[in-house]
Amino acid sequence: MGPAQDDLVEEQNERLAQELAGKVSRLKNLAFEIEHETKDQNKFLSGMVDDFDSSHSLLGTSMGRVKNILTMGSSNRKTMCYIGFLIFAFFIFIYYTSSFFSRK
What we know:
Layout: H1 3-72, H2 74-103
Helix pairs in contact: 1-2
Main location: membrane
Membrane topology: Single-pass type IV membrane protein
Keywords: Golgi apparatus, Membrane, Protein transport, Transmembrane, Transmembrane helix, Transport
């Protein structure tokens, strides 16, 4: 090999090394972005776990109260029927209201 070929090979090696350094830099940036996104998602999921725990305890307490009301006697059953009817009527009202506004 002559000096011209050595220079050509050296230039190719330098060009390939620069391309490789660019690819490594892009991969490094991508890894940092993935790390940042993963940390954000972990924070979000942790918050969701806390929210679910609080809603679980709230629902458990509410269900306990409903069971107490149902087991107290016939006068409370009548009240529960009225409450159930009102809740049903409320949902029907919401349904018709939302369907009315969605048509406009």
